[in-house]
Amino acid sequence: MARVEIRKVSKIFAEHTALSDIDLVVEDGEFLVLLGPSGCGKSTLLRILAGLEIPTYGDILIDGKVATRLQPKDRNVAMVFQNYSLYPHLTIAENIAFPLRVRGTPKDEIDRKVKWAAGLVGIEGLLSRKPRQTSGGERQRTALARSLVRDPDYFLLDEPLSNLDAKLRHNSREELRQFQDRVRVTSIYVTHDQVEAMGLGDRIVVMSGGKVRQIGTPEEIYTRPADTFVATFIGSPPMNLVETGDAVLGFRPETFLPRDAFAADADILSVPFHVRRVEYLGGDRLLYGKVTQVLPETDVLARIPSSVACPVEAGEEVSFAVLRSELRYFDRQTGLATDRQHMAPLRSVSHG
Ligand code: ATP
Questions:
Q1: Is residue 231 part of a domain?
Q2: CA of 74 to the centre of ligand 1 (A)
Q3: Which numbered atom of ligand 1 lies nearest the CA of 43?
């Protein structure tokens, strides 16, 4: 296991800056997720950590030692990619054993390690099958087991679940998390799927345009987004943003509820909500509409549990509110989160 440090790393391809001044520490045993839209630079960063690319500027340190220019074979790193690249003519056991064979590991040690790794990922019963006789999820676990037998210092995973269907993806995510809780190997996991990122990561690094926007636990990123990009990239549906005179005001759809859901003395911002459409999603209802009067007229969404009676029908206007403690403020120019104490004018807008 290892502590992985990324120091002021930039990567420039010809004219294009793929990564700009990335500073990041992955703690020993941590599961860190790199999350961002297509083209944000996450795979480039992973390739630099693997030794497949050399940064234009900056350094990579593994356990305090500079490893920036080390070849992949000279780093004790295991990579799991979308394409598991198992050998079709070898059995699952032989696939897992492959990196040990190449190293000339004695047979009894290979057998022991294959059993151990297969046990960790729950595929002991499949060892004599060929990959084509297993499911996508089982192949993914085989690829994980194959990386595990090498005792890597750190794992790099590039969207390893993206080939799986929704249900399998959910199960595999759960398994991956349980597996990580057992082995606690430093892992860096790339995805553009925020649900996967939230479910898996000890911390998430949100990237866009080659830059780090925010680093934090899933809860920090969700509840305290560092800027309007993170506020709208994380969360489905995204955070509501309303441009007011001197700030952008943000609130999550599930915090925006009928006025009478709050106690009479609750410190809330209450606004008329004109509902255009109600969408039933099973566990929740999404209410599409506009806030009017108190705030500048803006399209917003409310998300309310289906277990409570729907308080409004399409075409109606009712009083909705949000706790002031749930309001987030962002600078209009920079989009960066600001301390709400500086937003005195907004605090006087309305009191329910
Ligand atoms: P995706 O989710 O689509 O895989 P990503 O966030 O992993 O995207 P990268 O693959 O890291 O993005 O690419 C970051 C940027 O760098 C992109 O604009 C890409 O076109 C560019 N890029 C990547 N590799 C090269 C290269 N070898 N030469 C030139 N440009 C490159």
A1: no
A2: 25
A3: 7
